Fold this protein.
Amino acid sequence: MFKKISLVSAIFSAGILLSTNAFADSTLLNVSYDVTREFYKDLNPAFIKFWKQKTGETVTINQSHGGSAKQARSVADGLEADIISMNQSPDIDILHDRAKLIPKDWQKRLPHASSPTSSTIVFLVRQGNPKQIKDWDDLIKPGVAAVIPNPKTSGNGKYSYLAAWGYVLKKGGNDAQAKEFVSKLFKNVPVLDTGGRGATTTFAQREIGDVLLTFENEVNLINKELGNKFDVVYPKSSILAENPIAVVDKYIDKHKTREVAEAYADFHYSETGQEIAAKHYIRPSLETVLAKHSANFKAIDLFSVDEVFGGWAKAQKTHFADGGSFDSIYSK
């Protein structure tokens, strides 16, 4: 049982980004994960404009970002989010499992299992790719330092771990061989940051490591912000990272924000919302928008958590629960 935290301390520890509109008719808090900051800087003003035109109401949208698992626990422990937007369904499931804040079948409320967008794990290497990193096998070579956030606290880290494990299984290996491969990979990890943004800072600004494993949208934004100091490497296969969203029923009813919160969630599926996702190199679920921006999304062999690991519940218990495979790998 996690220790209860106050709303005020949770907000300040998570790092709230406030809208510039100080006197709103209603306010939403969207608790999200590390690498969505830039996406929501564009999507939130677009929704505010849409909602104003539709209803005449002004809405302020506050953002909270951090490692996905930590963020989800903060909401379960009392941070009164109206919306939660994560990069894996278990970090929304716990709102039901721990605190009954949402219904068990929350994924049935919106299309694509309540995931309006998706991404995948790719490699960011230093310009010119001096270590000649081309696929997963290159990450376990001696002398290659890989930067990956902690799978216990970060969705990015979980997906990177499962992508590496699944790579071995998909090419015909068994779980013992996959565990050996992932063990070698994490021996090459010099530091475990708690979230994806921390790992990006370690790699890009502190200049630690030869390769950063992170989401497709993050590597493209890094190059955009830092001036193409890095190269993006797509492995032959990787994992499908779905980005689910949910309204937090207990809190939207308490705040009387259900109508605007549900409209905000729906807006992620609109053509405008999907175009903003594509602009930020997040894979849209709307086929027309995906086709329009197909040049930005390289076609690679993607496998899902359900397909390879039997679903998130099983993957979480086997790999990331206390005493699971990751603990046995990393403790060694």
Summary: The radius of gyration is 19 Å.
